[in-house]
Amino acid sequence: FGLAVGVWQGEQPAWVVAILRNVVGSCVLGVALGYLFYRIYRLMNDPVSELILSGMLFTAAFFVAEHFHMSGFLSVAVASIFVGNRKTLCMEPETVETLDRFWEALVIAIEGFLFVMIGAAIPLDNLIRHVGLGLAAIAVVTVARSVTVHSLLWSLDRLFRQDIPWRWRVIVDLGGLHVGVT
After folding, report:
1. Nearest residue to 75 via CA among 83, 103, 173
2. Among 112, 165, 172, 110, which residue's Cα sits nearest to residue 146?
3. DSSP state of 91
4. Listed residue (141, 150, 148) closest to 171, CA to CA
């Protein structure tokens, strides 16, 4: 968003480089942190420590990316996918289930809280006056999410030699990109 505002205001003359740094850099950082934390997970066998470590991965991926002016959300998503695809190789089944349930509950709670806070912050008269802009924003976000989700899943398919069926890509796209750090 910050990049788009900068381009709109003419403050980002090298916007292609900035976009590449943001997208590619965030993905590379996510893979690097995911690999590092995966290696640490392999040395552990304590569910509580692994739960804490998953929170550390989420925090590290987000704040390191933000520090280098990259996408914290993209970095977290890639790191989460990287570790999530390997968690059964380095964790006991009970730990995997505990982590999955914890992050699923946390995501639902945070989304609910944010939904209520955003709704409370929008004055009703502004909402009615700008309904056209709101619908246009929804369309832009939906298209951008589709392009991002499908290109990211396609790239991960090629990188890790997996085959995510088209139907599952559509489900991820329509549901939004929800990746629990596990």
Report:
1. 83
2. 172
3. S
4. 150
Collapsing DSSP to helix, strand or coil, 44 comes out as coil
Element holding 24 (H helix, E strand)? helix 15-42
Instruction: Count Cβ atoms below 10 Å from residue 141 Cβ, excluding itself.
Output: 11
118's tokens = 């955003």
Entry pTM: 0.59
Alpha-carbon distance values, 53 to 23, 44, 66, 157 (Å): 25, 10, 20, 26
Residue-wise pLDDT tens digits, 66-122: 999 888 999 999 999 999 888 888 888 888 898 889 988 988 898 888 888 887 887
Q: Quote the pLDDT of residue 180.
A: 38
146: DSSP letter: H
Whose tokens are 């989304």? That residue is 111
Provide the residue type at 33 as one letter: L
CA distance 71 to 58: 13
Answer yes or no: are the C-beta atoms of 154 and 147 closer than 8 Å.
no
Report whether 82 contacts 38 (CB < 8 A): yes
Query: Other CB atoms closer than 10 Å to residue 108's CB: what's the count?
Result: 11
The span from the CA of 13 to the CA of 29, in Å, is 24
Under DSSP, is residue 111 helix (H, G, I), strand (E, B) or coil? helix
